[in-house]
DNA sequence: CTGGATCCCGATTGATACTG
DNA sequence: CAGTATCAATCGGGATCCAG
């Protein structure tokens, strides 16, 4: 259960482990990244932007991020229904971290591109 | 298979997804954090510092980090055997990211401590 | 001490079908 | 459009045993 996950989290002392316990998984960071880039964001927009994710997973992950106080959900009683997601004030504190992660991802991509093109040359 | 994981990675364009593909899992970031704090670090020291990890997992994760060019391993033919792990030059580029992650973890812990004391006491 | 090889479980995830 | 429910399959990760 979810409540269990929360209980487990309370035992954690290491800040890194704590952050991981909230952000781990294939999708959380990408969702966060997408919402940081443009907020608010609708369900469908997220689904399109995060290639490979299924609606089921997107819903589940969004619920967890909401429960953890990082994003908030606003429902509009329109037809068809509209739901917007945006960062909470606390959620905005992830921005520097996300920036560094993205940044490092770029370095990593660049490095691997080089390694690949070298393949077997130089050394 | 591992080679497969590498192949998959080549298709990724999003930097965040790329970073996640290398760092995801329960242990990678904690291992990195431990080695950043003090380098070089021996196998046993890592095992002690990263509470909960088993030698099997520690080995597996270290191998992946090594393969991804983030850490390097040095073996000393002593009795008993000694192995030291340290960051590569590229591995050092994770420092700002790790700093932000740790930092955010601290904020998160602080927030949840408040939420808990509100929700519980006073009641 | 370091860590390779197996086996195995259960949480995580995906596919599908359905609803307000 | 924005989900929910269910079921099945996969895979990360733990336990155990073994070796240099």
UniProtKB/TrEMBL annotation, chains A, B:
PROSITE patterns xref list: HTH_HXLR
Keyword entries, A-Z: DNA-binding, Transcription, Transcription regulation
PANTHER family xrefs: TRANSCRIPTIONAL REGULATOR, MARR FAMILY
All residue ranges annotated as the HTH hxlR-type domain in the record: 14-113
Gene Ontology terms describing biological process: regulation of DNA-templated transcription
GO molecular function: DNA binding
Record-given protein name: Helix-turn-helix domain-containing protein
InterPro entries (UniProt xref): ArsR-like_HTH, HTH_HxlR, WH-like_DNA-bd_sf, WH_DNA-bd_sf
Pfam families, A to Z: HxlR (PF01638)
């Amino acid at each position: 259960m979810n409540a269990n996950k929360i209980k487990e989290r309370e035992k954690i002392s290491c800040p890194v482990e704590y952050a991981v316990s909230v952000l781990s998984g294939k999708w959380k960071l990408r969702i966060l990244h997408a919402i940081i880039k443009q907020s608010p964001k609708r369900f469908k927009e997220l689904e399109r932007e995060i290639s490979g994710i299924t609606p089921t997973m997107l819903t589940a992950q969004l619920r967890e991020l909401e429960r953890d106080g990082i994003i908030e959900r606003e429902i509009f009683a329109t037809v068809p229904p509209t739901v917007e997601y945006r960062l909470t004030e606390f959620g905005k504190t992830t921005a520097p971290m996300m920036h560094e992660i993205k940044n490092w991802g770029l370095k990593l991509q660049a490095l691997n591109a080089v390694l690949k093109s070298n393949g077997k040359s130089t050394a």
